[in-house]
Amino acid sequence: MNSIRLRTLVLAFSMAATGLAAQTIVASGSAPVIDNTWWKHAVIYEIYPRSFQDSNGDGIGDLNGITQRLDYLQALGVDAIWISPMYPSPQVDFGYDISDYENIDPQYGTLKDFDRLMEEAKKRNIRVILDMVLNHTSDKDKWFIESASSRKNKKRNWYVWSDGKPGPNGTPVPPNNWVSLFGGSAWEYMPQTKSFYYHKFYKQQPDLNWRNPEVENAMFGVMKFWLDRGVAGYRLDAIPTLFEDPQQRNEPATGGTNAQGDPNLQEIYTSNLPEVHDVMRRMRAMVGKYPGDRVLIGETYLPNTAELDKWYGGAKKDELQLPMDMIVGFSNKLDANMFRTRLSEVETQVHGSQPLLVFDNHDNIRSWERYGDGVHNVAIAKILATMLFTTRATALMYYGEELGMVTSTPTRVEDVRDPIGKTGWPNEKGRDGERTPMQWDPTPPQAGFSTSATTWLPVASNYKTVNVQTELADPNSLLNWHKNLIEMRRKRDAVRDGGMVMLDGTNASVLSYVRTAPPGHHNIVVALNMTAQPQKIALDLKEAGIQQTAIKTLMTNESSLMGATTTSITLPPFASWIGEVQMQ
Ligand code: GLC
Predict the structure, then answer these.
(1) Is 299 considered catalytic here?
(2) 3-state DSSP call for residue 370?
(3) Are the C-beta atoms of 80 and 133 separated by less than 8 Å?
(4) Distance CA 157, CA 398 (A)
(5) Which ranges of 316-454 would DSSP assign to H, the alpha helix?
(6) Cα separation, 482 vs 489, whole angstroms
(7) DSSP character at residue 396
């Protein structure tokens, strides 16, 4: 369990503690408003560039590889790709340690390759979103090298430095108990200037000092560099961690230790400080000057929906357009009551802002294992996809999620590539498992990912059956389920722009809701059986103000439901069913 996985756990725990019980929550079915802002309807697809497609046979994915695969993404129905960091980097944290913010790592290609990717993506109506790491740079970045060189350097105050406290035998010790999310003290001593620098993540990722306006200025400059090149926006990495307590007070211990052996701390002085919202407002204003509805997405693991609302800017809506709602997707339990409550919360408690749902990313065990029961995993994955694409949210997915790619955690420490898996072994095996190469076809040995004999991480062993080519040929595959859902979402006004009303609000086994359509368009009803038992339902559409009762099945993974004509049906275990309400 890595710290990011742990964050998910902490989140689940703090929410359990609020005592969410079975309850009827009917979200407002307010009159649907047609709004063509692209990101409100978008399917955004995260690409981990090392693992998507290798075009030059070195066993590592690259930008030209992404360009080669754009036709696939277009056919899937993707509106935008988010590319995890592809900037020059020592690759300690596989790109999240950036040493030059205005270039491309030679492993991934050149700026020319990037421009070609942008051009080819544009031809296919696919926008490109970049990952922006603002909390820290690499320790090899020229800014840090300068800052560390002397106490008098003009960039000294660009990072977070401390003299520490006097230690027992004359050597100073860190100023407080702050720990790195990746293990050990968050303070690293530099003998040449007799001082410590702060790092929330690896010691090769020193934190920038956002209290210094020069830092904001420089980073906004970097963001403009790529906005001027045409990128559609940013995913802001680890954004709640931008500020630290200027008094550097100790964080309260919550008891016990984490997978890295460090004490569990309540991160009140190193995460989610209110100052970050001022930066977000200024950033939104800066990005808002560009034409074309550029978008800001936040990596926002937060304990509850009220906290999430702050990242939108609350009623003012002047911060991020799309902070990630990790509360729904990383609840890690297939529980109808919980999904009903949380989906309703994000409908009703964010001042009408646009929800962004996500079930998978490059930091967490894949949803396949987090939600799967080992027997019905395909059906369960179809349930998750149905929630992702038929609720009102903007949908964020991770490469391979559409195939049912599994988490292939290394079994020997010597095979681990992610440093936290090396330092934390065997409690923490790192994030390699969810970063294995994309599975394109059944060809051995690299499943179409690469022509190299070895790849940076091995291709998962199930590639002969779980791959794009094989699944495209199977009408019942998880991949085709995704394609059909995305197509339906595009074509149906109710799903694209409609309101959302929960039905059957006390049913602990089945999650049901209606997407209410503008007048003259069909309402759409969705029912998802989240249990291993058959479930009989008789949905009352009047709860959503709908008088008609006749239904036509639009999509289901169960042939027994194909002919359903009303909402009185029996859902087989883990069935997904989507019906169109007929207009009489
Ligand atoms: C984010 C990234 C993660 C990275 C960390 C430090 O959580 O998603 O992969 O290790 O930030 O940049």
Answers:
(1) yes
(2) helix
(3) no
(4) 37
(5) 326-329, 336-348, 367-371, 377-390, 419-424
(6) 10
(7) E
**Which residue among 4, 181, 302 has the greatest number of ligand 1 atoms within 8 angstroms of its CB, and so is best to mutate?**
4
Asked if 367 and 402 count as a contact pair (C-beta separation under 8 A), the reply is no
The pair of structure tokens assigned to 336 is 């109808």
Q: Which two tokens stand for residue 139?
A: 């320790």
Task: List, as one string, the DSSP characters of 444-464.
Answer: TTTTTS-SSSS-SSPPPTTTT
For β-strands 322-323 and 295-298, DSSP reports them as parallel
Domains of the chain, with CATH numbers? 7-21+40-135+213-478 (3.20.20.80), 142-198 (3.90.400.10), 500-581 (2.60.40.1180)
Contact 457, 438 (CB under 8 A): no
CA distance 105 to 128: 17
Which residue is catalytic, options 131, 237, 504, 558?
237
* CA 432 / ligand 1 centre spacing (Å): 13
| pTM for this entry | 0.95
pLDDT top residue among 260 and 108: 108
Q: How many residues does the chain have?
A: 584
Q: How confident is the model at residue 28 (pLDDT cuts 50, 70, 90)?
A: very low
92 lines ligand 1 (CB under 6 A): no
For residue 104, which amino acid is it?
A: I
Query: Atom 4 (ligand 1): residue with closest C-alpha?
Result: 96
Which residue in 182, 164, 193 sits closest to 431, CA to CA? 182
At 138, is the secondary structure helix, strand, or coil?
coil
- Using the mean position of ligand 1's atoms as its centre, give its distance from the Cα of residue 441 in Å: 30
Residue 117 and residue 101: Cα distance in Å, rounded?
18
What lies within 8 Å, CB to CB, of 415 at 6+ separation is 432, 458
- Residue 33's pLDDT is 61
